[in-house]
Amino acid sequence: GIAAAVDGLLGLQRRGGAHDATLPERRSAMTSEDQPARVDVLAQLLRIACLLQQWTPVWTPDRGALTRIRELLAARVRADGSLPFALNEAIPVSNVWAAMFADQALALAAHPHAADVRAADPLIV
């Protein structure tokens, strides 16, 4: 199911280098360092994992992998609240989707049971 898919994605995390804990844009690009280290992909995975943890208490994800993603996202939030589309862009450009997904993911990671309250939020994308 979904939990197995999330486990598989967490297993694809890049390790080492400047973009530790990032995910490849697609499975076929797993070893290619020139692929974008997309912030929205990281944020969506963290958000889904947080929701799964709340709704599927028997699921035990790789907490270290989730912590690395959370810390990487939090460290990349700029003073104005923006985030880049990708962490390895030569000229980082702010991206609204990346910021929205990261904000939601980091909020859920900080307060996992807030998902019940936020589920009815019309601004959840």
Summarize this structure briefly.
By secondary structure, the chain is mainly α.
- For the termini, the CA-CA separation is 22 Å
* Approximate strand percentage: under 5%
| Uncertain residue ranges | none
Largest sheet: none
Beta-strand segment tally: 0
**CA-based gyration radius:** 14 Å
Mean pLDDT: 83
Structural class: mainly alpha
Estimate percent helicity. 40-55%
Number of helices: 5
General description of the model:
This protein is an all-alpha fold and 125 residues long. It contains five helices and no strands. The longest helix is centred in the middle third of the chain and has 17 residues, at 39-55.
SSE layout and pairing:
Elements: H1 2-10, H2 39-55, H3 63-76, H4 96-110, H5 115-118
